[in-house]
Amino acid sequence: MNDESKVIHTYTKDILHPIIKRVKTYLEEEMNIDVFNTSDITCPKNIHLKKNTVMIGTSGSIKLIITLGFDEVLLNKLVEVFMEGEDIGDCDIEEVTNSIACEVTNTIIGNAIDNPVDSSDIYITPPVLIYEAKTLNKYKDSKFAFVTFITKYGEIELTAVGPKEQFENELEFKDQ
Amino acid sequence: MLNVLVVDDSLAIRIKMKGFLKKLGHDIVREAKEGKEAIQLYKEYAPDLITMDISMPGMNGVDALKEIMEISNREANVIMITANGQDGIVKDALKLGAKGYILKPISKEKLQDSIGQIFPEYFCSDNVLLDDNDLDDIFV
Amino acid sequence: MELGNISSKRLTLKLIIYIFTFSVFFTLLQSGIDLKQEYDNKIKEINNSVKIIEDNYLLKLSLTFWSMDNTALQLELNSLIKLPGVAYLEVLEEEKSYITIGERLTHDFKEKYLNLNYNHMNSVVNMGKLYIQLSYTKVEEDIIADIISIIIKEFIKYFALTLILLFVVHQLIMRHLIHMAEFVRGFQVRNLNDPLILDKKLNKKKLDVIDDVSMAINQMRNKLLVFINQKEEVQKELKELNQTLEQKVKKRTTDLTLKTNRITDLLNNAAQGFLSFEKDFLVDDEYSVECENLLGKDLKGKDITNLLFDGKSDKIDFFKETMIDALNEENTLTSSLILSLLPSELIINKRAVSIDYKILSNNKFMMILTNITDKKKLQIKIKREQLILKMIVSIVSDSVQFYETKQNFEEFCQDSLLYINSKNTSAVNANTIHALFHTFKGLFAQLYMRDTVKRLHDFESKITDFIESKKDNNDLKNLIDSFDLINSMNEDLKIVAQTLGEKFLTEHNHIKIDEALINKLENKIVLFCSLDNKQNEECKEILNDIKKIKNKSLQYYLSIYPKLCQQLCLSLNKSIYPFEISGERGFFVPDNFKPFINSLIHVFRNSCDHGIETKECRLALQKDEIGTIHCDFKKTKDTLTIVISDDGKGLDMTSLKSKIVRNSLVSQEKLNKLSTSEIQNYIFDSNFSTNENITHISGRGVGLASVKTELDKLNGIVEVKSEVNKGTSFIFMLPMKNN
């Protein structure tokens, strides 16, 4: 394996796979939404992000940007299950929806992230919602990974992009 | 009935946490969105219990915990909430004096257990019993 | 004794030597001095002799010599020679010897010439000389004799002295010393009873050193004796205590061993691994047997972290760090919270193990390991079953969707190559196919047909790859061929067939039609047929076909019962032979018969519940272990006869009768007048049940009553034939006109 594929292999095995697993178990166990299928991990040249995408960065010895994008219908279902039995009161439903998207992402990534390199802790940033659908283009040294989860209510897209330095907060690619 | 201060940057979590605490019969004194606010509110209201999210923008939960421990001379009851399963961070919090931790996703049961460990009078997970329906199904 | 002698001899020898030497020395000194003095004196004397001669005798001698009186001279010389030391006298006259006396010496002499002078008339006339020879030889001889005698004397003296000394010393000292030495040597710890008694007079007032020593020895002996006695007593006590102690220890050890064995037994049979270790993380000696099953043999002294984490050093480090932190934490709550950070489930040697951690009071750690592999496998199994269930449920509840999708996909599989339009590029074609796959994938996903979805997804990715690879249409064709599309659904469909039956899959050849519509159609046809007399035959056929659409055969309606009976008997722990409904196949019954036929379930239930006995019962009655239930129908002329029979235990007439009376259905007298079959017909009475216990299957007595109700509606009758232990038959007869 050359270096690039070695790195991707590490990312894949040790970082992505736990996250993928956690997405499935979280949806199935916490939200009672079955994940019919999971795509393989692909490395496309560009990725078109869904409207409701949440971004989380990691720091420490592994620096990545991870995004989780939800289909509208699916997200609504998540809100329904999450807020079951709770009175939302006079909170803005959109705010709550966004908050839940962030929270779900935060929980999944937080639960699943584990440092394969050394035993030092990886810190994850608080989640950030990306409002407009973005396109990510693969550029030079950035490494992409992309996974889709299919559920009854819609799809979830997971992307992992690294290294972190190449992106600004809104995922516009930083000019070199 | 305890007076609880809920600290979390996520609106959804705050709503849910309030819901659980109400169901468990406790009162929510205030909410905070980040560390500094939490410290301020602690000083003002001196709640019986604080639920503290670890990762928040601005001052994070562990730093806020540290200060609150200093102010209260390690007597404040703080339960850390974290999504991050990494034990190093949690251990640090425990060593600073946190009296419990809950891994997200939060459930009423987890909250009850953690509260019960600090305030034994609210602890009742040992008393989970099988009811008649369960008995019917178990021995089929 | 011998030694004593030798050592005493040595001592005395030493003594002798010392005394001897010193006294000899002194004596010699003294004697020497004396002898010297004597010698000097004698020499002096001898020397004096000359002076004497000179002073006293010389004149006379001179006179005599003058007078030439030789005799007198001789006499005088004689008297002179008697003077000490004088050895030779010679009177010399003009150097010639005149008269001599003594012997002339040739050596060792001293000579002196004295002038013989005579005073004659006032003049001194020298007449000659007197030559004197003094010899000291005598003195010397004397001295030597003296010396010799002294030596001899001394020798004798010392000899005697020695003996005396020896004797004295021996008497006074040696003897006692030897005795004491013997005594002390003979000191046996057990034989201290005899004191030292010296063989001498003990004058209490005049005690000498020997007495002192012997007394001291005796004192010592006494003390020793006392001490030894004490010691012996103490030893005895000690021995006794020792014995008691040993007994106690023995008992305690046996108790302890017993207890330990019991506990070890418990722990070993608990099928849980208990082990403990200290800060060094090396497993302690005692652990339960299950630990070896989970972690391997010979765990004593092995590093637990290696066994758990198989060399993953960062996990090991975290584990050790956390354990130590928990140990050092004083607050028990915090300590247990820290422990909760440790992995509660691990996979060790391909087994799922749950682990509990505890800190023991003596700063040790304890781990309780439980093998939960079975549990986990069960969980997985349950999960899989759940998913299958989901699939079945969604297929059944959404069956239209299912059949449609299935059919569409089958069509797609057959026509797949048609989508490869040679006019388009392979990329375009591939995209089309990709989109189709995607659509089907979604549809199957909704039906939870996971396996199919997975395969389609696979194909989708391969198509994507193909698009990138920029191959041509031919290659696309080959790719599609390689997918073997037609068999994609097989796995899922197999499960469906297993659960819902093969028929379910093929049933989609049927169309569901609203029944009202059929009736409408039927009525129209009847009307039409009645109007058109010419087509009579055909009309009849058409009406028949319509009827067939609406109606199902009696076979069909009754066909559920065999399976039902099987299931029922299984749940009641009874066995029956599988059976089929025997009767005309294409025989149709009108709709209004359906409720009655549905109610027959109660009859079958009764057969299974009350009729057929358990295996043991049947064996005891020497019947076939496995029971038989029959169901057949026959149409004769105007009557449809349905018979349901079993070879069970039959109706219990006695309890039947008593129940009838008890329920006050009929008085006892009237009962006696009734025939068997009349009595048996009472089982169709509502609220009648000879079964005391209401099971969830039957017993309420409602079942047969409802059968009767339905039967009555159709104007049918029923006959019950029952023989104890032989069986029961229900014969239903329903009037039925020919179509």
Write up what this structure looks like.
The complex is a heterotrimer of chains A (176), B (140) and C (739). By secondary structure, chain A is an alpha+beta fold. Chain A is built from three helices and nine strands. Chain A has one domain: Chemotaxis protein chec. In chain A, the strands form two sheets. In chain A, strands 1, 3, 4, 5, 6, 8 and 9 form a seven-stranded antiparallel beta sheet that branches. In chain A, α1 (3-30) crosses α3 (93-112) and α2 (72-82) packs across α3 (93-112). Chain B is α/β, with parallel strands linked by helices. Chain B has a five-stranded parallel beta sheet with strand order 2-1-3-4-5, with helices on both faces. The radius of gyration of chain B is 16 Å and the shape is globular. In chain C, the strands form three sheets. Chain C has a four-stranded antiparallel beta sheet, with helices on one face. Chain C has a four-stranded antiparallel beta sheet with strand order 5-8-7-6. The chains are: A alpha+beta (176), B alpha/beta (140), C alpha+beta (739). Chains in contact: A-B, A-C, B-C. At the A-B interface, α3 and β5 of A face α1 of B.
Please name the defining characteristics of this protein.
A: 176 residues; alpha+beta; Chemotaxis protein chec; two-stranded antiparallel sheet; 9 strands; 34% helix; 27% strand; disordered C terminus; B: 140 residues; alpha/beta
Largest interface: A-B, 33 and 22 residues
State the separation between the terminal residues of chain A, measured CA to CA. 28 Å
> What would you call the quaternary organization?
heterotrimer
Q: Tell me the name of the CATH class of chain A.
A: Alpha Beta
> Structural class of the helix and strand makeup of chain A?
alpha+beta
Count of domain modules of chain A: 1
Order of helices and strands of chain A: HEEEEHHEEEEE
Average pLDDT level of chain B: 85
Helical coverage of chain A, percent range: 25-40%
Q: What percent strand of chain A?
A: 25-35%
Total DSSP E strands of chain A: 9
Helix content of chain B: 40-55%
CATH architecture of chain A: 3-Layer(aba) Sandwich
The 3D shape of chain A can be described as globular
CA distance, first residue to last residue of chain B: 41 Å
- Rg over alpha carbons of chain B: 16 Å
Name the poorly predicted regions of chain A.
169-176
